From TrEMBL:
Lineage, broadest ranks: Bacteria, Pseudomonadati, Pseudomonadota, Alphaproteobacteria, Rhodospirillales
Similarity section: Belongs to the tetrahydrofolate dehydrogenase/cyclohydrolase family.
SUPFAM superfamilies: Aminoacid dehydrogenase-like, N-terminal domain, NAD(P)-binding Rossmann-fold domains
EC code: 1.5.1.5, 3.5.4.9
Alphabetized GO MF terms: methenyltetrahydrofolate cyclohydrolase activity; methylenetetrahydrofolate dehydrogenase (NADP+) activity
Substrates-to-products reaction catalysed: (6R)-5,10-methylene-5,6,7,8-tetrahydrofolate + NADP(+) = (6R)-5,10-methenyltetrahydrofolate + NADPH; (6R)-5,10-methenyltetrahydrofolate + H2O = (6R)-10-formyltetrahydrofolate + H(+)
Function: Catalyzes the oxidation of 5,10-methylenetetrahydrofolate to 5,10-methenyltetrahydrofolate and then the hydrolysis of 5,10-methenyltetrahydrofolate to 10-formyltetrahydrofolate.
Protein name as it appears in the record: Bifunctional protein FolD
Domain Tetrahydrofolate dehydrogenase/cyclohydrolase catalytic per the UniProt entry, residue ranges: 7-122
Domain Tetrahydrofolate dehydrogenase/cyclohydrolase NAD(P)-binding span(s) in chain numbering: 145-290
Pathway: One-carbon metabolism; tetrahydrofolate interconversion
Organism: Kiloniella litopenaei
Subunit details: Homodimer.
Alphabetically ordered keywords of this record: Amino-acid biosynthesis, Histidine biosynthesis, Hydrolase, Methionine biosynthesis, Multifunctional enzyme, NADP, One-carbon metabolism, Oxidoreductase, Purine biosynthesis
Length: 297
């Protein structure tokens, strides 16, 4: 018998994108400003091509300008750095995203840290990580990585005040696990970060009122790891084959977890759609900040 409430990220993200589109119209009408997002894709990775197409489409749907820069797989690090520099200096571009992964011969840290931190809508620049970790506010508030930002929005919408709750984040990557933990800490949760060397992971997860799974292992978090009534955010996107057909599953065994959780995000339709919506939100924030305008809520 399933009991958990489904946290509908598809619906939430559609509402968020609607609000962003309204705000873009206001910026155009009142300030003659159209936010612009530049996405750089190096190489022909099929999954990256799908993501980039989808980002471009949703950027245009929100009324923003979308600039796609496709570069061949042989592009050198210097050439990519020159492209980033060109976009840093382009006033029509308010947000820059270099689609990861880049080919092995390019140092992704060097590329990310070459992006103007105020245009770093992925929030991966070391200055933005530092601003997030130190709780910087106002003019020096960080650009927050999109997937954790979308996840915390869903949590706050579902639970309201998160203060005092016990949260376990499984995964410590720079793009999901660590910034997610920072956001939960900012909401005054008691936060544990688990990873591949964590001992007795099931027992650690069982302590949590909030579980965020960002591991990249299909259905690894089992139903009986979930404390009764806990809220589960499944960040994982894993393609597996079932009966010869491709299927998308998360990092949580959803059907089992629903027997224990109070609420859970589905895969697909949970965190996934929030990521692009938050990319658009960050682009809007970046455009407003760069023009000295009040930031949208
Ligand atoms: P990474 O591979 O960078 O990080 C995975 C983390 O999981 C690591 O910290 C690793 O630990 C930990 N881990 C691996 N195996 C285990 C294990 N057996 N027990 C406990 N911890 C383990 O992945 P990402 O953070 O980039 O992505 C995580 C998942 O989220 C993936 O499924 C990815 O597809 C998905 N994702 C979804 C997005 C969305 O839009 N919804 C966006 C980005 C990612 P260690 O550090 O010790 O190696």
């Amino acid at each position: 018998m399933s009991t958990a409430t489904i946290i509908d990220g598809k619906k939430f993200s559609a509402t968020l994108r609607g609000r962003i589109a309204e705000e873009v119209t206001r910026l155009k009408n009142d300030h003659n400003l159209t936010p612009g997002l530049a996405v750089v894709l190096v190489g022909e990775d099929p999954a990256s091509q799908v993501y980039v197409r989808s980002k471009g489409k949703q950027t245009l749907e929100a009324g923003m300008n979308s600039y796609e820069h496709k570069m061949p797989a042989e592009t050198t690090q210097e050439e990519l750095l020159a492209k980033v520099e060109e976009l840093n200096n382009d006033p029509a571009v308010h947000g820059i995203l270099v689609q990861l992964p880049v080919p092995d011969h390019i140092d992704d840290h060097a590329i990310i840290n070459a992006i103007d931190p105020n245009k770093d809508v992925d929030g991966f620049h070391v200055i933005n990580s530092g601003r997030l970790a130190t709780g910087a506010r106002g003019a020096s508030a960080p650009m927050i990585p999109c997937t954790p930002l979308g996840s915390i929005m869903l949590l706050k919408d579902h639970l309201g005040d998160l203060s005092g709750k016990t949260a376990v984040v499984v995964g410590r990557s720079n793009i999901v696990g660590k910034p997610m933990a920072q956001l939960l800490l900012q909401e005054s949760c008691t936060v544990t970060i688990a990873h591949s060397r964590t001992k007795d992971l099931a027992d650690v997860v069982r302590q949590a009122d909030i579980v965020v799974a960002a591991v990249g292992r299909p259905e690894m978090v089992k139903g009986d790891w979930i404390k009764p009534g806990a809220t589960v955010i499944d960040v994982g996107i894993n393609r597996i084959e079932v009966d010869g057909k491709n299927k998308l599953v998360g990092d949580v065994a959803t059907a089992e977890a629903m027997e224990h959780a109070g609420a859970i995000t589905p895969v697909p339709g949970g965190v996934g759609p929030m990521t692009i919506a938050c990319l658009l939100a960050n682009t809007l924030t970046a455009a407003s900040r760069q023009n000295g305008l009040e930031e949208p809520n």
